[in-house]
Fold each of these.
Amino acid sequence: MKLSQTLRRKLAAIATRERILSLLSIDEVEYFSMQFETGLLYLSLIIKDATIRQYIGTSPQYWKWWNNQWLLRDEQLVHRAEFSNYVIDDAGNLCYEQCYYSHYHDAHRLANEIFPNSIVLNDSYAAMVQFLIDDK
């Protein structure tokens, strides 16, 4: 049976998450809480206006984008961890999985490295404008 590209990607994402849970000795609640809280902190760092931040933060497009960015970093850590139980961070320091994971998923760092694409922003702005129109 041939699997669709979408299904293969979902299965790979689940396998990556399971490997991360094992590497970090955490459960899914901790994992998803960390992902969610970091996503909110990241938004507060890149979007200063609270109203705009609220609309982006409730946008399904934002969370799809954020989850994808998170998964990309998880995949990189899993790849590095396949070769050893430690990694070298950007400063050249020896770092075990937990500290590297925290460093690599740090909202302050991500605010300097990634930015939501226009689809995410346009979707959120459209919702905000519609709310303002409906509110009048």
Amino acid sequence: MSEYATSKAAALAFHECLAIEFRTRFNAPRVRTSLVAPTKVRTALGDGMEDRADPFFTPVLEPVQVAEKLVWALDSGLSQHMILPAFANLLPFLRAGPDWHCRFFSILDNGDNTVTHKSMSRAMKNGYGRNWEGADKELHERRLKHLSSQ
């Protein structure tokens, strides 16, 4: 999970810096940047995350829902930073509170158990990592072999 969270944070930082550089460094204020940050999407990667008991607060998005928002963002002609579903826009504000506050909500929604051995096994069996190359492909094959021997 840490690799995924880190890459998502890096994508956000890159999006913000790129937008600033287009406006200031390259004097290209009409170039637009957009970032879509969905919660769980029904994909092979999404299989690696456990579903929650309350789908209202933790819905599983369909790929077409995310694609529609992306097309909308491109059609708007404006820079966009979209967090999906819409109520998830409140999540970044949790980071503004003290650590105990964040920890309380993490415990409340069972967020520490989002990615488990069981959920990652399910994701890999359903195709997550199938198209990786090089050392990543070798790692994927070793993990699948290990999973099938259990």
Amino acid sequence: MSQTPTRPRIYYFCLVNTQRYNQIAGDGSYVGAASNKVSALSAALRQRGQRSCVVSMPLCGRGAAPPASATLLRDNGLPWLFLRSHRSRWRRKFSALAQFAWFSLWVVDRHDRVILYNHGFEYLLALFVLRLRGVVTVLDIEDAPRLDEPGLRPAVDRLMFPAFLKLTSARKIVASRGVGEGLKLREFTPVYGAINAPTRRPEPRATWTDVGMTAANPLRIWYGGTIERDTGLDLFCEVLPLLGERLAEAGRYVVFEVTGRGGEAAIAAAQAAACDNLKVEQRQDLDRPSFLAVLRACHVGLSLRITDSSLAQSTFPSKVVEITQHGLALIATPSADLLHIYGSDGAVILGDCAPHSLAEAIMLALHDTSALQEMAQAGFDRSLDQFEAGRVADRLVLSLGLKVRDLRTAPDPASAETCPTAPR
């Protein structure tokens, strides 16, 4: 009989890679937002004295050489257990189905907690095992099923989703308040991300003195992420000629720093119709240090998710976290979550998704840069309250039915304790 541990472990089940695993497996797969969020939340839990680790089935490309057995790694002090993966998509799915179930049966103690990052076929058998054993299992709903997605996989996801809602704890973790309300959940905790934020707003590297008055000192505006219609590609292209006219009339200057992927040809064509007072710098495939250098050189960040899109209704625009934590002012399209987080003084929330509204907001920012600086400070303060790792971890711990620990007696989060891989 297994002994009840002093503190239960928290296992985060997911289907993501890390950069370190990719190096070992010789895989060039993109390490995206899902991996970053899981890592940030698990690390935040450990900072609050919780025994958290990640269990993942990595997604390997055809050219990868995944290890022949499960691999235990430490990444920034956080233990990751990568299950044995396969290059074949279908072998990987059925292997994950068996391995997550085995781990849930033989490694997870019934007093532990399990978080499922999104719903998926790979967790299905483990979900039933955890339910039968009485293990508290919480669903982290990052992407709710979308009715407009064609194909077999989205159809299967829509069929499975009710089972995941039913067989997991009543309280869910959701990517946004809008997701919880849209799914009509009675109990949910919005978790937008976790950051180790400084207590003072970092000043952007660009100067604020006389910003926008000359071509040598333009107002710099960042736009990035995955760039498509739902994330504002059409809106961005339509605002360029309109804003160009207004800048020429006012004698002001703006440079857009575009670091995202997608829409390159459309953006270039739209820029050609603008005037010399407006420039667009497209910078693709930047490494992390280069990306941060570009971001911190800007004054403003854009989040242009189209309000009536399925994407806006099912996920949270995570780029706003990065914008405000690095001290930029935020201009965003309408969002109930953003209004709830930032209020009216922490960000410019547009009234609609029209090009003239965006152009007007940028021109107002140019004419009152001191107010823009104050807004950037207020936005940073709001982001600290909502996204700071310790506060996020405390909300997560309560969602898992655990007690928030007194950090005066908490162990060093970088201790040698790791993720168990063998049966109890």
